[in-house]
Amino acid sequence: MRIDSSLALGFVPQMRWSLALFALACSATAAVPPALDAALKNFRGDAPRGWSYTQTTTAEGKSTVERHDATKPEFERWSLVQKDGRAPTAAELKDYFDARSRRSRTGTAPKLVDQLLLETIETVAETPERSTYRFRVRPGESRDQTAAFLRATVVLHPPTGTVESFVLASVEPFSPTLGVKISELRTLMTYSLPRGDTPSLPQKVATRVRGTAFWLKSLDAEMIVTFSDYAKAGRP
Question: How many Cα atoms occupy the beta-carbon half-sphere of 236 within 13 Å?
Answer without folding.
Answer: 0
